[in-house]
Amino acid sequence: MDAETVGRDYLKDVDCPVINCVFTHNRDYLPSSTDYDAIIFHVGEAKNGSEWNEPRFRRYDQVYVMANKESPILTKRNLTLYNNFFNMTLTYRLDSDVLWSYGMVFDIETGAVVAPSKGAKWRKPEAVHDPKVLKLIKSKSKMATWFVSHCKAFSNRDLLAKRLQQFIDVDIYGKCGNPICPRDIAGTCLDMLNSTYKFYFAFENSICTDYMTEKVFLNMDNYVIPILYNGVTDMQHFLPPKSYINVNDFNSIKELANYLKFLDINPQEYANYFWWKKYYKIKFRPDNFTFCNMCVKLNEWRDQRKIQQYPDLDTWYNYQTCKDKVKDFV
Questions:
Q1: Are 199 and 288 contacting, i.e. CB atoms less than 8 angstroms apart?
Q2: Which three-class secondary structure state does DSSP give residue 78?
Q3: pTM of the model
Q4: Which of 75, 80, 190, 254 might form a disulfide with 314, Cβ 3.0–4.6 angstroms?
């Protein structure tokens, strides 16, 4: 949310089926914490293991929501202290009570949300013969790039990038590479994804269940193929088929590199990776839909007079659910 407090008009703008919720960052919006039907606790905000200031009193039917967009690797909070404390989860994981995704895929014709969803259904990929797209592809002069500032990540993505550099040319921008992209021309640097590079590394810093961040969604409007490295077990829950290249689909670094070289010299095969742009649109940070879904869920619980509790949230959301690599070659 951009505004401190939003409600009916905000939810009406996204055609939310229920509009009786008000969301606010202002803790003084109501006289007492017990006046709120639900309180959201962002567990990723802990610093050095410190805890938040919990309300002194809690209404018996009040919903406490555990929210986090970061991976458990980056969360410095011991959730075992909060057994039977939270009633709802709001995270990037598909099995959360409410999904808080970095991006969503919409059907252009119907406007409906297609993904992320375990029930996502896609059109069949087709050949792309748009002369403007083919012309743009043929004008690209460089192979691959990576924009990164968090070096030596838990996922060993740095090692993956270095091994790929043994087979193909990769320009690494930011603190972890040689070329530097100054902040004042950051837009120009990102424009190179359209004009100059054929592949873009979208490597996550944490390999955790369903963890896929803005690295993917932010750049899919460009005509550049993202190369993914993450902990998602089924990418078709998130993105259209043949709109990305997944490191996890290859048996070796060399096999992956050879496929990239094949696409490099076959512009038609490369162009086919953009078939989906005719039918789908990516929205980055769709928080308005997230809060609509939360409003719907809260109304369902109120109507059913059912409030669940999580007796062992840490088992579901801790660093042990993450990996330091996906493939043995990394």
A1: no
A2: coil
A3: 0.90
A4: 80
